[in-house]
Amino acid sequence: MLTLPKYEIRSMPTLLEQRNNLIQEMEGLISKAKEETRSLEDTEAERFDAIKTEVSKIDKTIQAESEAEKLSATEKAKTGEAEEERAMSEEKLINYIKGDTRALDVANNGAIIPTDIANRIITRVKEISPIYQRATVFNVGGDLDFPAFDANSIVTGYIADMVELTAQNGNFTTRKLQNFIAGSLVTLSRSLMNRTDFDLVQFIVNMMAQSMSNFIEKELLVGAGVTSATGIFVDGNSTGLTTAGIGTITADDLISQQMAIPEAFQPQSAWIMSKPTFASLRKLKDTTGAYVLNPDIRTGFGWTVLGAPVFISENAPADAVAYGDFSGLYVKVSQAIEIQILNEMFATRHATGVVGYTEFDSRIVEDQKISVMEVKVA
Fold first, then answer.
1. Nearest-CA neighbor of 134 among 240, 268, 235, 238?
2. Residues 180 and 359 sit within 8 Å (Cβ to Cβ)
3. What residues pair up with 338 in beta bridges, in sequence order?
4. What CATH architecture is 110-376?
5. Closest by alpha carbon to 125, among 195, 220, 227?
6. Measured distance CA(265)–CA(325) in Å, rounded
7. CA–CA dist 216, 315 (Å, integer)
8. What residues pair up with 353 in beta bridges, in sequence order?
9. What does the alpha-carbon distance between residue 356 and residue 205 come to, in Å, rounded to a whole number?
10. Residues 6+ away with beta carbon under 8 Å from 185
11. How far is it, in rounded angstroms, from Cα 149 to Cα 172?
């Protein structure tokens, strides 16, 4: 007699009931044929095969549900562990700031913010600064060297028949991102720190992120280089242009600047300019009298010039405009943020200082992606 396992009805009662009923029907077909000492009739055989198929489908569904439950339980356990680890990290940071513990993770350089909190600071910096967001960022420590090929070192031209080509040397230069230390200071009221309804960790994350974002954006634009990061408007590796006229930027200048960037990089390109430059460009009109600068209705805010978004920065120079795909700007920011707690320095103010340090540098590595237009002065 055919025997198939019967399951108890628990997590999927309807499905299991159907399965057990089908098995009983299969057993009934076999029993009837045996009692009448005959083989299965065609209709009975067809029904028997159909039942086997249905039972097989139900078994697969039951097995899939069991596996899904196991995976779900595993993911819940992982999520719970991650949340517990995050809570422990936040508790350690709070205790450290309040002076209840001496250090979070003592290393040669001092105390290190837990990785998940450091990541939250870096993430907030990226959210705050659209320029940093569009750059190519490396979250590593130590120097980084990038080879840059000089396409002008290979010359193509006409030659006479049967005359040998003159060999040209393809030149590679190196762009290095170094370890320039940047720091930010947040002062916390002792009264505020002792409040139970105040999210101290999130406040530190936001304040440090805002401070670092302002600093990093300034360096990405006008960093002097050599002993600091090199900004877009300072780095000589960008495609340099000058306005046709003296003392002003015209719509024709902007068109020339936009056309200086290869078409492959246009979809991701944007403008960076100062507020005074932005104000003057808002008054520009084309030959039909339409304003060149238009609101970006796709996002509900912001502006576009010649179809590309505009980023306004207080740190951009008033006599220059940058345009291009800013992924050509390489940025190195160390993921390990070091902190120091200053209790005595701000004691007379009933406050505690939290100082955060990170390594930072920037350079234009992909020259063809970025152009800078400077206003002609004479």
1. 268
2. yes
3. 112, 357
4. 2-Layer Sandwich (3.30)
5. 220
6. 6
7. 10
8. 187, 342
9. 10
10. 211, 353, 354, 355, 356
11. 5
The Cα–Cα gap between 185 and 250 comes to: 42
For the chain, 378 residues long, give each residue's pLDDT as a single digit of tens.
555 555 444 445 577 788 888 888 888 888 888 888 888 888 888 888 888 888 888 888 888 887 887 787 777 666 655 554 555 455 655 665 555 554 444 333 334 455 566 667 767 777 778 888 899 988 777 777 777 655 555 566 667 776 676 655 555 667 788 888 887 777 777 776 666 666 777 777 777 777 778 888 888 999 988 888 999 999 888 888 898 888 888 888 999 999 999 999 999 999 999 988 888 888 877 778 777 676 665 554 577 888 888 888 888 998 899 999 999 999 988 766 676 777 777 778 888 777 777 788 899 988 899 999 998 876
Q: Look-up: residue for tokens 């549900």?
A: 65
- Judged by phi (left if over 0) then psi (alpha if -120 to 50, else beta), residue 239 lies in beta
